[in-house]
Amino acid sequence: MKYLFPYIYERYLAKQIYATFGFILFALVALFLFFDILSELGSVKGQYTLPLALLHVLLKAPSRISEIIPIAGLIGSIYVFAMLASQSEFTILRIAGLDIKRGLTTLAKISLPLIVLTLIMSEWLGPYTENLSDQIRMKALGSTYSSQFKTGIWVKDRLRDEDGSGPIRPGVRYVNVGKIAQDNEIKDIRIYEFDDAYRLLSIRSAASGRFDQSGTWVLDDVTETRFKETKQSDPLNPVYSAQTITHPIVSLSSEVTPQILSVLLVSPEKMSIFSLGRFISHLTENKQDTQRHSIAFWKKVIYPFTIFVMLTLALPFAYLKARAGGVGLKVFGGIMLGMSFQLFNSLFSNVGLLGSWPTLLTALIPPLAYFILALIGLRWVSKT
User: Fold this and answer.
1) Number of structural domains, the chain?
2) Where are the transmembrane segments (predicted)?
3) Which of 71, 120, 247, 354 has the fewest CB atoms below 10 angstroms from its CB?
């Protein structure tokens, strides 16, 4: 800690902020988990017992922590700075030479461990425990994933040879999956293949399928209908013939993996940066819209650094005199400030999505606007 905070006042501020941050984070996470448990009680039945429901909710705690860390940092730092101001400790620090520039540098150092904690929770531990939590719930309830569409999940894929396992050729394949069960098993599959002129080549339907170790889909009870154009003298009046074949098992090479299918069932905001980047590449290769996932990607990249923005927003409260309001009032103001940031951030993302604004700009403007607001506040209170 001495290497990160070489000055005594830095270690003192860091110790105070971390202690208050930990207490507030624990209180907020416990509160949210309590409400999650209450909402989950209605699903407790059969093999899905109360202990499993509690385990399901507790495994979602890392995701909750990553969402709450910036707000906990804001509230905790406001409380610390308000207490320092009320006891004239911050005034002493200012007399000793702690100016705005040094204060911002200190806050940047204090935010580094919190940024690392956020990255661990949001990029590694959170997605892992979230997936494990869903698997526990699915296994106990015997349920399956399904999308928001009544027809299931639709995915665009590259076309291959007639046997489905050859090299990629001109055309497109659309895969429709009705349900995703446990252990990467899919059900109610329909596959539509078109040539480069968007003429229908074949329709496949399968009762179920699974992804094997070789990276191919093994489909069971497959019914395949192939369409072929017969040569006619009149090209404007083509005639097609159809042939229907049934197969007990069909192996199908595809770029659509279980990971891509599971991504479609998860909101982009809950995905990791790595998963978002891989899925954006898949959408780009298939010439599909990436706006929503690109905004989520840049928000995930920028999000850990909003902790520094939150700490900067709290710094002006240290310059306010004790007579300017009690500690409780300042903490309440910090809570309102944090809620306004969350609302503005979400609203701006939706506006950027509707307006097709540049994704990086859409993700960057809210934290940048609040950082500028913090600097304006610092400049104003430092002169009063």
Assistant:
1) 2
2) 12-35, 68-85, 106-125, 301-320, 327-348, 360-381
3) 354
